[in-house]
Amino acid sequence: MKLYGSLVSPYVARVAFAARLKGLTLIPELPPGGIKSAEFLHLNPIGKMPAMEIDGRPLAESMVLLDYLEDAYPTPALLPASAYERAQSRLLGRIVDLYVTVQARYFFTNMNPATRKADEVAAGVLAYRKSLEQLEHFMGPGPYAVGSTLGYADVAMMPCLQMMASVAGACGVVDPYDGLPRLGSWWRKLQTDPVTVAFIDEYHNAFMNFMASRR
Ligand SMILES: N[C@@H](CCC(=O)N[C@@H](CS)C(=O)NCC(=O)O)C(=O)O
């Protein structure tokens, strides 16, 4: 079983972290020719990371890969037991992918203060905030995103929200979870758990090194 991609991608990071929580050794590797090479496109014609190769067969899309790991390696379970909470966990991941991380474009294109367009950043701040409110609405009361143990929803949310906080932060968003009590206490909870702290740091360092290399 192979995981293709780099930890700089929050989508790759969520798969790597899920695998780690399951005790699997699944270190992401960049395909030798990159993700637009003919070899990689043969495996994953979507041309995005992550992708996996499982017994010679291809699989892609990070949330599908989380589900694969959960089905193939059920212990320890990352999804909760109840049907509602399983759906709630998947919904949180979907909101992150469809409504939260898409707002990163407003910030990525305005990282340089010299060329920053204030109206674009302002639109991004509003759209990002709205998407966080949507996430907050569907989260559980804590301490984790769904229930009282670290699981699927936390793994799906953590690197993506870390990435969003970094790029929005670079454009002046100081406390994205202000006035969002569930998200705020969830994020603070993650900072108290050595397992999540280590992973957040690892992902954050990979992402920040990547951003520095683009300057
Ligand atoms: N929906 C995909 C998103 C993956 C994605 O956008 N990956 C980015 C890196 S963060 C990528 O590979 N981008 C390359 C491109 O779009 O050309 C997933 O969840 O796996």
Please characterize this protein's 3D structure.
The protein is mainly alpha-helical. It folds into 2 domains: 2-72, Glutaredoxin; 83-214, Glutathione S-transferase Yfyf (Class Pi), Chain A, domain 2. 57% of the residues lie in helices and 5% in strands. The protein contains 9 helices and 3 strands, in the order βααββααααααα. The chain has helices at residues 10-21, 38-43, 62-72, 83-100, 104-108, 118-138, 152-170, 181-190, 194-214; strands spanning 2-4, 51-54, 57-60. A 3-stranded antiparallel sheet has the order 1-2-3, with helices on one face. Helix 1 (10-21) runs parallel beside helix 3 (62-72), helix 1 packs antiparallel against helix 7 and helix 7 (152-170) packs parallel to helix 9. The radius of gyration is 17 Å and the shape is globular. The model has no long low-confidence stretch (mean pLDDT 97).
What can be said about this structure in brief?
This protein has 215 residues and is mostly helical. 57% of the residues lie in helices and 5% in strands.
Beta strand %: 5-15%
Quaternary organization = single chain
User: For this structure, what is the CATH class of the largest domain?
Assistant: Mainly Alpha
Indicate the low-confidence ranges by residue numbers.
Answer: none
**Pattern of helices and strands:** EHHEEHHHHHHH
**Distinct helical segment count:** 9
- State the major sheet: 3 strands, antiparallel
State the end-to-end CA separation: 35 Å
Going by helix content, strand content and strand pairing, the class is mainly alpha
What is the arithmetic mean of pLDDT?
A: 97
Radius of gyration: 17 Å
Overall domain count: 2
CATH fold type of the largest domain: Glutathione S-transferase Yfyf (Class Pi), Chain A, domain 2
Tell me the number of strands. Answer: 3
Strand arrangement, major sheet: 1-2-3
